[in-house]
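Archive entry. Fields below.
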Amino acid sequence: MNAQRLLIAVLAVLALAAPWFAYPVFLMTALCFALFACAFNLLLGYVGLMSFGHAMFFGTAGYFFGHVVKAWDLPPELGLLAGVGGAALVGLVTGALAIRRQGIYFAMITLAFAQMIYFFCVQAPFTHGEDGLQGIPRKALLGGLIPTKDDRVLYYVVLAIFVFGYCAIYRIIHSPFGQVLKAIRDNEQRAQSLGYEADRYKLLAFVLSAALAGLAGSTKAMVLQFATLTDVSAAMSGEVVLMALVGGLGTIVGPVVGAFIIITMQNYLAATGEFVLVIQGAIFVVIVLAFRKGVVGELAEWWKRRQAR
Amino acid sequence: MFELLGIAPQALFGQLLLGLINGAFYAMLSLGLAVIFGMLNVINFTHGAQYMMGAFAAWLLLGLLDVPFWASLVIAPIIVGLFGIVIEKLLLKRIYHLDHLYGFLLTFGLALVIEGLFQWKWGSSGAPYPNPIPGGTNLGFMFLPTYRGFVVVAALVICLATWYGIERTKLGAYLRAATENPTLVRAFGINVPRLITLTYGLGVALAALAGVLAAPIQQVSALMGVNLVLVVFAVVVIGGMGSIMGSIVTGFGLGLIEGLTKVFYPPASNTVIFVVMALVLLIKPAGLFGQTK
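PREDICTED_STRUCTURE:
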């Protein structure tokens, strides 16, 4: 227990000092993706539902944020709210339909809905199609109290948003509601027979996951000041699956680790073009075949074996 | 009557033909997916990449060895099918005991690798494939390019042959039996693992065959299967993977619906199949031809 507290303290210090050692925009992007991956993992790791269309929440939330802040000229807080609310709404509609099927069909249905949203975003006027929504102004937060033009200041805002989202997920998983979710994951019929209406729990979890993915997406739009089709694409849906998988499904820290690994990798490999995809694909194959527990899962296993000795 | 609707018959029938052609590809691809899923319990995400490989194989055979289209129609699916068999032997075999999701993820990763490599080697802009039967006939109400007519007929023949092979032959009977109860079929002395490998090879060859047929109509490009496979997933959800005939009917039907949407409300033509999927999920979640287990 003490070791765990020490670890959290070290991580906190590292997170607070990071923008003085690393490029803040990179850190912020990574944090957004980390939150996105955690939101995805809430669904797959704890409810057993694999959504292969999470980009539809991440990407549309970016558009909602940009539209509210740029076209309507409202404060960024309202933009974030619109992003989260919009993503939750998309999640409510698609989730209500998707939970009607189980297992692999669920993955295909979410993938198909994400593709539908993608085509919608290509055509809709407010997304500016292929050009994307560019030049979203960075406005000061809390009525001018926090100037976000400075990357380091904005970093702390993003860190706060990430910590909020992460704690929310932690709280959800460790609440009675989270216990029911895990019961449904492990044995849906039994949970049902105990009087828990599985569909309602699944839908609520889906909407929560969508809303948190939306929080990540709109925060990313706030940081990078644009929202584009890339963030709604099927490739993005695949990327978040990869992040969670690399880090470790069903572990609460795994997706964060996975997101940092993948974002760092993309950063270094960006110049190689198509090879980013080839390498990502190869990682998928290797992980599925050999390291299904992911980095954090395998480390935890190794630690347990060491302790037992 | 057409004048009343404000639509020229040429436009209407032209789009219907296009829809029928798209439907032919949906039918062939969803058929392969259904056959593979039935036997392997894997949703083959690599299907779109293998379709692309079929088109590329034909294009390379023509460019490098001067192999004509008609020979490619046989050779390309065999090459890609053999590639599929290698994949099954090397990779897929190892994950049958796991949850379906892992097969989905593994084949997704494979698709990324294959498409990325093709993109790296040949770029993402397409290359044209010469039309093997140029010309066409004026039917009075529309102009029918001969090759497009041929594609629809060929796809129908391929689909019906697959149906016949699975529903009416001895090998097909083994296959269906092994889908229902592999252990029992094995006890009868049938080599089930080999049957599984063969099924995957055949499913992949079917995708490649569709790719060869598509080559003269579309540009041959590394990414030609990326969006297609996503639409085919929706087709599979709509039809349900329970019946072979169901896959064929759903594929062609959805192609037609897409064509009609292009005539009457073009902006929705990309999304109409997904809307149909949403409606089917509301009314009959198991799919039009699916059985609820």
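CURATOR_NOTE: The CA atoms of residues 152 and 176 of chain A lie 38 Å apart.
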